Amino acid sequence: MEYWLQQFHVFLLILLRVSALLVIAPIFGHRFFLARAKVGLAFMVSLILHPLIVAQGLQIPEGLFPYALAMMREIGMGVAMGFVVLLLFIGIQFAGQLAGLQMGFGIVNVIDPQSNEQVSIIGQFLNILAVLIVLATNGHHLILRGLAASFEAVPLSGVKMKGEIGQKLIELSADIFVLAVQISAPVMISLFLISVALGILARTVPQMNVFIVGFPVQLAVGMAVLFATLPLFYVLLENSMLALERDLISLVDFFA
Fold first, then answer.
1. pTM score, whole prediction
2. Are strands 109-112 and 117-120 parallel, antiparallel or unpaired?
3. Is 110 helix (H, G, I), strand (E, B) or coil?
4. Looking at residue 120, what DSSP letter applies?
5. pLDDT in tens, 70-125
6. Of the candidates 6, 56, 108, 202, which lies 20 to 30 Å from 179 by C-alpha distance?
7. Taking a C-beta distance cutoff of 8 angstroms, is the pair 140, 41 a contact?
């Protein structure tokens, strides 16, 4: 009975870290997934990782307070790792919002089922496209591999909360603005040139109503440039996934 009770404590700590990451991560934690499916996925992943972690010979904290503190630290580490993954998709959605605002879609918003907030329709399109590309290229396996590797770098009940973790998360949050500008730059530059051309046209032909002519032109040019630069979006997303793996490894090191 003592052996099985110890194994249950180990499994519970594993389940807390896995569940915290899967709830925050955008692909696994989407609102469209049933809560029972999320619980089942977290349970199965924890069950697969349990034999690998038990082989490390871990020592479970004795006493209620040390064990509860270890549980909170496992949840905090899982949430931080899931937040790093979420930042990538926030940057993509922000890029779509910038592009959509320049194209004239500022008043056309839809409700994002994941965040329950109004987002640009272009941002929603890029977000869904990014999820499909990540699934098609097995990017979700990268998240699961990073989760499994975190138990090797930071064993159970060995999580340490340091001040550098918050600083690292702030630095990673700043990178989403760079990613958003990189994705939306072609659309924004082309629409800026269109605005300059329409301004010159308004000065040379005052009788023309530039506002009526400019909106469909900006919309058509913006959509054309957006679809023409989708291969560039794929390349940026692929590079961002590689950077995500590096960021997860660097973040996990702070918990050791």
1. 0.81
2. antiparallel
3. strand
4. E
5. 888 888 888 888 888 888 888 888 888 888 888 777 666 655 555 556 667 888 88
6. 108
7. no
Amino acid at 96: G
Closest CA to 252 of 171, 176, 170, 146: 146
Contacts for 81 with CB less than 8 Å, ≥ 6 apart: 20, 21, 24, 146, 147, 150, 248, 251, 252
117 forms beta bridges with 112
Q: What phi and psi values does residue 120 have, to the nearest 5 degrees?
A: -65, 145
Q: pLDDT for 49-69, tens place per residue?
A: 888 776 566 667 777 788 888
CA distance 159 to 182: 35
Which tokens in the block code for residue 101? 């605002």
What distance in Å separates the CA atoms of residue 86 and residue 108, rounded to the nearest whole number? Answer: 24
Query: Which token pair is 241?
Result: 């996934």
Angle between helices 121-136 and 139-153 (to 10 degrees): 70
CA dihedral over 77, 171, 82, 243, signed as positive or negative: negative
**Tell me: the pLDDT tens digits for 180-208?**
888 888 888 988 888 888 888 777 777 77
With H, G, I as helix, E, B as strand and everything else as coil, classify residue 112.
strand
Q: Give me 164's structure tokens.
A: 């550098």
| Range list of H helices, 137-229 | 139-153, 163-204, 210-228
